[in-house]
Design a protein that fits this description.
single chain, 83 residues, mainly alpha, two-stranded parallel ribbon, 3 helices, elongated
Length: 83
């Protein structure tokens, strides 16, 4: 059996700083009402390109959400032969 994972009565096992950081991230995301983000690109580098390229969504692989630079994203996308 797990050591308290997923059990509400074991919340005390989660450090306060973890909960605080997650709540802050959630609040930050909720305040970003003007930008829509596509997280599908994290699963498939090709399937969601249409929406990202059309400007309907920001690509979650890029800063500030992801860790890729525009240059790295270009290389990654070119590798699928879509360009």
């Amino acid at each position: 059996m797990g050591r308290g994972r997923g059990y509400p009565d074991q919340r005390h096992r989660i450090p306060a700083w973890v909960t605080d950081q997650l709540l802050q991230r959630f609040a930050d995301e909720r305040s970003e009402t003007t930008s829509r983000v596509c997280y599908g690109t994290l699963l498939s580098r090709e399937q969601y390109l249409r929406d990202v390229r059309a400007g309907r969504y920001r690509d979650a692989r890029l800063d500030p959400i992801g860790r890729m630079t525009p240059e790295e994203l270009g290389i990654w996308t070119a590798a699928i032969g879509d360009e």
